[in-house]
């Protein structure tokens, strides 16, 4: 919950404009003919392969844009699992470098499940394993909230750039999801319960 609050006021307009230019191209035009993996590889590797921009993997940006337009009021968003068959089909399309149209090829729950799958399969998670003990120690700290928030900001700066950018982008999106909690039944506590295991492996 503290992570989400830190990023609440940051602007993503320029990032969105950059990503839209990339996302407008079919994925098979964005990568070379060897079709490098999209799932289960590090954020740095995705950057090196040209499959991310400003630290945001293109597959994540595509899913978030789709859910922002079509899923914000869907009850149980991220809590209700999508069709395993459809999730696997979408994953294979991304892995093969095919153009994926989530509006046509997927649905809200499957796209949400695909996003969680991507995060789970990051080799070192969004919150890198080396920092896990310090995040847990900070959570258990009994000092006042202002001091904890200050310490949290400092700790976040130690994340690798690509991990920080993705975490920031994800938190900004989850804030928007929580704003529709009356319809989707996903307040910040519910979202934290779902995404905690996907961020801390």
From TrEMBL:
<dbReference type="Pfam" id="PF00620">
    <property type="entry name" value="RhoGAP"/>
</dbReference>
<dbReference type="InterPro" id="IPR000198">
    <property type="entry name" value="RhoGAP_dom"/>
</dbReference>
<feature type="domain" description="Rho-GAP">
    <location>
        <begin position="41"/>
        <end position="201"/>
    </location>
</feature>
<protein>
    <recommendedName>
        <fullName>Rho-GAP domain-containing protein</fullName>
    </recommendedName>
</protein>
<dbReference type="InterPro" id="IPR039102">
    <property type="entry name" value="FAM13"/>
</dbReference>
<dbReference type="InterPro" id="IPR008936">
    <property type="entry name" value="Rho_GTPase_activation_prot"/>
</dbReference>
<dbReference type="GO" id="GO:0007165">
    <property type="term" value="P:signal transduction"/>
</dbReference>
